[in-house]
Amino acid sequence: MVKLQEGNASVKIDQGELVSFKVDAHEYIHQKGSPGWRSADTEMFPIIGPVNETDYRVQVPKGGNAIQDQHGILRELQYQLVSQNDTNAVFRKEYSAGTMIANSKFPEKSTKKWQIWPYSFSFQKSFSLNENKLEITFTVSGERDMPFMLGYHPAFKLHIDQPLIVSDNGQITLDEVLAVGNRAFQVENCSSITLQDKKELTIETEGFGHFMCWTEVRNMVCIEPISFYPYSVAQRDLNSGFRYLKDSEEIFKVMLKV
């Protein structure tokens, strides 16, 4: 467990997963074991969304079809700790093109035993704690012209029954998010959202462009920065949401501000 501390703020990171962000003893992150979701955060890469409607195949320029399960192959890889100090920590995942990766959803929730991606990439996740702000930076590098989508999937603990999710697009109630179900509530063209709970938390982003919100319970809500909303197109056209790597690395940021 990696622990960061700055004044009244503390962070706990378990193998790259943000499992606690506290300020003045107030916990903002959904706790594992609580109803709603078995995780606290994860990344969606290089695919966002379900691909079961296309037999878990996604069209890519290199090699035709790639086999991916929900939200992509990255979540099956293990983070390695690169560096840490009192207020910063850096984790990294590496993937070599064509490597077969076991699918943890098989056989209960998927028909595919293996996932495979025809591109090599490096994915870095960095944490920086500064007073009452936690900055999370994602750095993507790899083969030029590699297609990808990126989503960050944190879950926030709720302390009241009727919180509000507020953006420039308006207010969203928890009931509205629950009503959408597994498709997740789309928040287009948005770089900042404030969760108005017992205490407010603002999620600011760079590089993503959109959000989606999801939950199935009243004690947590996922407010997820995304580069592409997967239900905006037919699943067979999921590849239309790809971005493509250039010569330099791509950087995305999420700031949790109290």
Provide an overview of this structure.
Strands 8-9-12-13-24-20-19-16-17 form a 9-stranded antiparallel β-sheet. The longest helix is centred in the last third of the chain and has 7 residues, at about 175-180. The mean pLDDT is about 95. The chain contains 1 helix and 24 strands. The protein has one helix at about 175-180, and strands spanning about 1-5, 10-15, 15-25, 25, 40-45, 55-60, 65, 80-85, 90-95, 100, 115, 120-130, 135-140, 145-150, 150-155, 165, 170-175, 185, 190-195, 200-205, 210-215, 220-225, 245, 250-255. The protein is mainly beta and about 260 residues long. The chain has a single domain (about 1-255), classed as Distorted Sandwich (Beta-galactosidase, Chain A, domain 5), CATH 2.70.98.10. This is Aldose epimerase. Keywords: Calcium. Monomer. InterPro entries: Aldose_1/G6P_1-epimerase (IPR008183), Gal_mutarotase_sf_dom (IPR011013), GH-type_carb-bd (IPR014718).
